[in-house]
Amino acid sequence: MVEIFKGGIPVIDTLDRWYEEFKLEGYGAMIPFIGIVRPDNEIEGLSFDLYLPMLNEWFKKWDNLDDAKIMMAHSFGDVMVGETSFLCAVFTKHRSEGFKYLEEFVEDFKANAPIWKYDLIRGKRVFAKDRAKQLKGAGLLS
Amino acid sequence: MIVVEFLGPIKKESIEVDVSSIKELKEILNKDDELKNWLKVSAVAVNDKIINDINYKLNDGDRVAILPPVCGG
User: In A, which residues are within 8 Å of B65 by CB distance?
Assistant: First the structure.
């Protein structure tokens, strides 16, 4: 299951918790990715809507790998500049498949996870249309 | 009856409609001009699975979700 946090994710605590959970499971590599909200265009932060049933469904195929364990956390609601809205870590026996899985996982996440991003500008949510990607099958009802 | 939920930035409350196919639903939803624009770029899920077939049949109690363009992270 995807871990969900209201607001910014507690990065070090979460990574430490995952590390402790899997450090004796035979994985020689833990490769984290920590997303950080940038102050682009003077935004105060970002805000997120999630659709949990489909997010967990999407994650299932990444949760069932034979040779890797992937952990993921995402925020909902407001996340301020400098905070973290997306955190994941890949555990593998060797580092090479770990780096590969991390790249594939984050690419798939960006393309398919049912999550909507808004810029926070003067306290208001503005849909980040320019960064949003259409899902496969978009326009079926057009 | 089926329930249609509008996700993310589509600022619309969910609605109940009496339709038996995606095609029928398309007719109804396109009557709303604002929604029409969202539909051009949105995917459709039935009971949390994205569908690609305009002829997909809907059953009583099905939940439809309209998914605008995404941006996780």
Answer: 51, 54
Nearest CA of chain B to the CA of A17: how many Å?
21
- Is the CB of residue A37 less than 8 Å from the CB of residue A46? yes
**A112 touches B at CB < 8 Å:** yes
**Domains held by chain A: number:** 1
Phi, psi (degrees; rounded to nearest 5) at A101 = -60, -40
- In angstroms, rounded to a whole number, what is the distance separating the alpha carbons of residues A139 and B28? 15
Instruction: Record the pTM.
Output: 0.95
- CATH topology for B2-67 is Ubiquitin-like (UB roll) (3.10.20)
Percent of chain A with pLDDT over 70: 100
8-state DSSP, A131: G
**Is A141 strand, coil or helix?**
coil
pLDDT value of residue B8: 97
CATH value at residue A42: 3.90.1170.40
ipTM for the complex?
Answer: 0.94
Question: Does residue A78 form part of some domain?
Answer: yes
Print the domain residue range for A64: 3-127
Encode pLDDT of A20-67 as tens digits: 999 999 999 999 999 999 999 999 999 999 999 999 999 999 999 999
- Asked if the structure places residue A102 within a domain, the reply is yes
